[in-house]
């Protein structure tokens, strides 16, 4: 059997970029997948690419809204009879220097990532604990949760918050056999909507490189000299939630071609 056969995965922000690659990888490994995102139509379109509604469904869920999160978890339980694996991936990056960062910027970054992942983990953990069959929660945090980059105080601070949620929940949920791990990507340009949504132009301006050369720029400053693509992050989620790492919890895996190690 495939490694994730019979498991139900709930992936936030899965209508685009890294989340879409994760949903697709977990479906390929046999999981039933719930594609949760802001936009129902986009979420349903991605789910339809993965298979029929027996294996994948799309749900609308603003992760910053507790009622919407609960409704999405309820829809998951209704569609697939349970939940086994949760990926907190939804996010966005405003990337501004301190003096340009408004209170609204700060609140939006923290609402979607720190609060959003807290709400999703809480609603999912309740279901996981009730099922008593263990489970997995994975946070897509960032290299920026540990290392300071230029002009992104609100983003990096909320990524650091997510990274600490990983450690705290690994401790708290461990007795229920629930593993909580994180992935720290960096430099995912190709296939990621963050760049399409303005982050690309922002980073290009910050580093003084043309936007279409950002992928190469990021690759060249890594120790492997290899560009990181959404599928590389999906590979890490697959390994962290698979049977081989059954005794690993509270870990953060860098997927950055070595930037954080250098
Ligand atoms: P993306 O823009 O392609 O995808 C993000 C998805 O999240 C979108 O589909 C968007 O609609 C969704 N989303 C945004 N706000 C939401 C909300 N309130 N509720 C539900 N869904 C919401 O970006 P990506 O690059 O694939 O990023 C995915 C995650 O990876 C983010 O958490 C990001 O911070 C993290 N990350 C990305 C990189 C990178 O280099 N691209 C590096 C480190 C970490």
TrEMBL record:
Domain of life of the source: Bacteria
Record-stated family: Belongs to the short-chain dehydrogenases/reductases (SDR) family.
Name of the featured protein: Rhamnulose-1-phosphate aldolase
């Amino acid at each position: 059997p495939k490694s994730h056969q019979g498991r139900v995965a709930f992936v936030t922000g899965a209508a685009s970029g890294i989340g879409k690659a994760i949903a697709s990888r977990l479906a390929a490994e046999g999981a039933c997948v719930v594609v949760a995102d802001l936009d129902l139509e986009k979420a349903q379109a991605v789910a339809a690419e993965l298979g029929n509604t027996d294996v994948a469904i799309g749900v609308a869920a603003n992760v910053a809204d507790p009622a919407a999160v609960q409704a999405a978890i309820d829809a998951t339980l209704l569609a697939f009879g349970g939940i086994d694996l949760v990926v907190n991936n939804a996010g966005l990056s405003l990337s501004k220097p301190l003096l340009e960062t408004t209170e609204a910027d700060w609140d939006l970054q923290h609402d979607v990532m720190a609060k959003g992942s807290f709400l999703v983990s809480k609603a999912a953990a309740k279901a996981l604990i009730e099922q008593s069959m263990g489970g997995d929660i994975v946070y897509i945090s960032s290299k920026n949760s540990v290392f300071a980059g230029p002009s992104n105080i609100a983003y990096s601070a909320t990524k650091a918050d997510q990274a600490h949620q990983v450690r705290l929940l690994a401790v708290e949920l461990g007795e229920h056999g629930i593993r909580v791990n994180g992935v720290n990507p960096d430099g995912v340009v190709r296939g990621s909507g963050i760049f399409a949504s303005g982050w690309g132009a922002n980073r290009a301006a910050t580093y003084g490189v043309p936007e279409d050369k950002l992928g190469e720029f990021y690759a060249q400053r890594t120790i492997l000299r290899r560009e990181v693509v959404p599928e590389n992050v999906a590979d890490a989620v697959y390994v962290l939630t698979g049977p081989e790492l059954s005794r690993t919890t509270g870990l953060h895996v860098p997927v950055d071609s070595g930037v954080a190690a250098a």
